[in-house]
Amino acid sequence: MASEHRFAILLVVACSLSACARDKGVPAGAPAGTPSKDSSVIDAAPASVPSQPAAQAVVSGAGALQFVKDIVACGPRFVGSPGHARAETYLRSHLKGIELQEDAFTIKSPEGEFPGRNFIAKFPGKKDGVVVIAGHYDTPYPLRKSGFVGGNDGGSGTDLLLELAQHLRKTQLEGYSVWLVWTDGEEAVRAWTSDQDSVYGSRHLAETWEKDGTLKRLKAFLLADMIGDSDLNVERDANSTLWVEDLVLESATRLGYQSHFFARTTGMDDDHTPFSKRGVPVADLIDFDYGYSNVFWHTPNDTLDKLSPRSLEIVGNVLLDVVRLIGERK
Ligand SMILES: [Zn+2]
């Protein structure tokens, strides 16, 4: 996950299934104040919209969590590692029968060069234009000897996308096409610096798509990062596009999930940054408060027991609804 530099991006994962909310540094709905040294809390607003009955699940959180288990079983997935190669094979095997593009590139890092590979699964819609939903699958190179497996950071987004692929392969999209993008090299290889040692895969993709004209077809770039936390609190991201963020809240509210969204506002530097810099509307769905003061972030404690299928389901359903709403915009 992203580590931010201006505001220090934290990864959010979850607290354990048995001990959640009380571990959070900033209770949902509380005046957001208390930023940790790493967090980028700018503002917070209580989520006070009246609750509505939750919508019927479209995305299977249980299915997504099974994918997380499998990807974690690949082991650490830092660039150049055997676990990374196993994750690539795993992605390919679960995307058979879908139009899949592999975008190979070279990660030129302070620790040397590594092979990088983005995966792009394409689902055609009826309208001319594309909405991208992205998530990274790599884990940090500097943590390669720590036992870090990235259940939430790297695992949750990757595997929610795999679950979305299972849904989309059975769906006729009435609006724009959807491209699911598994980005590589999101993590810093030595230490996070914007535009240098970070988001290698999304920078490569944004540059490539700018050159070949694909970027003009993008209606929005939606990012899912650290969204498996059982104590789910998706941030409002001040570095994302306001109207896309507003659609996220509109969907969350309509589906009855609003208490999990936008209690705090942060400023994230993540895989969406190279696209927002090029004028693509973006939204980073990230829960950057993973255990008390983000204590599980980038530690060997980022494990499956901190995650909840319900959180994956909530974010998956919101993403699909946002895609629909974008398709209905004039
Ligand atoms: Zn990370």
As a percent range, the share of strand residues is: 15-25%
Mean pLDDT: 87
Rg over CA atoms: 18 Å
- Give the class from helix and strand content and strand pairing: alpha/beta
Major β-sheet annotation: 6 strands, mixed
Which ligands appear in the coordinates?
Answer: zinc ion
Question: What ranges have pLDDT less than 50 throughout 5 or more consecutive residues?
Answer: 4-53
The geometry reads as globular
CATH architecture field: 3-Layer(aba) Sandwich
CATH H-level superfamily title: Zn peptidases
Q: Give the domain tally.
A: 1
Approximate helicity band: 25-40%
CATH classification, class level: Alpha Beta
Number of helices: 7
What is the CA-CA span between the terminal residues?
A: 33 Å
Describe this structure in words.
The chain is an alpha/beta fold. The protein has one domain (21-328): Zn peptidases (Aminopeptidase). The chain has helices at residues 61-73, 82-94, 155-168, 200-212, 242-254, 273-276, 309-328, and strands at 43-44, 99-109, 112-123, 125-136, 173-183, 218-225, 234-237, 261-266, 282-286. The longest helix is centred in the last third of the chain and has 20 residues, at 309-328. The radius of gyration is 18 Å and the shape is globular. Mean pLDDT is 87; it is low at 4-53. Zinc ion binds at residues 1, 11, 140, 153, 187, 298.
Can you lay out the helices and strands and say which pair or pack?
Blueprint: E1 43-44, H1 61-73, H2 82-94, E2 99-109, E3 112-123, E4 125-136, H3 155-168, E5 173-183, H4 200-212, E6 218-225, E7 234-237, H5 242-254, E8 261-266, H6 273-276, E9 282-286, H7 309-328
Parallel strand pairs: 4-5, 4-6, 6-9, 7-8
Antiparallel strand pairs: 1-8, 2-3, 3-5
Helix pairs in contact: 1-3, 1-7, 3-7, 5-7
This protein binds zinc ion (ZN).
Zinc ion binds at residues 1, 11, 140, 153, 187, 298.
